[in-house]
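Look at one record.

>
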Amino acid sequence: MDLPEIEKLIKFVQNSGVSEVSLEQKDFKITIKTTHGAMVMPAQVSQVPHIVHTPAPAPVSAAAAPSVASAPKETPVSGDEGKYITIKSPMIGTFYRSSTPEKPVFANVGDEIKPGKVLCIIEAMKLFNEIESEVSGKIIKVLVDNATPVEYDQPLFLIDPS
């Protein structure tokens, strides 16, 4: 199975409303899981669910596969905060401002950030995913409390790009 076929399968699962699809062929097995009609998406550079290609019979779950951290979605905000960029969570998990309780936070209000700067960690299924900025600017507001659950696409930070 090649990448375009896998992408078609992912789109099918997203559009069909099923909660899980498993496909096994002679040399690999793939499982794609969803929750409540939405994909469970570990952070990916392409923002596509992580698919693991391994020899059968070892079953592999898309939701439990190791992930490569990527920058979250960043979109403009409307209203009074229209000039700011909102950095959103790329996954469901637990938001942490530092790597351990004893260490300083990755980013504070007023900090100048650049692309590649780690802003926080989101833990999903015992995997700790560093969330990096894709923009330069100044942190105006942290929108989530430390050690709280976050949803996919939930706003985390407000950034002033000027």
Notes: The first strand starts at residue 20 and ends at 25.
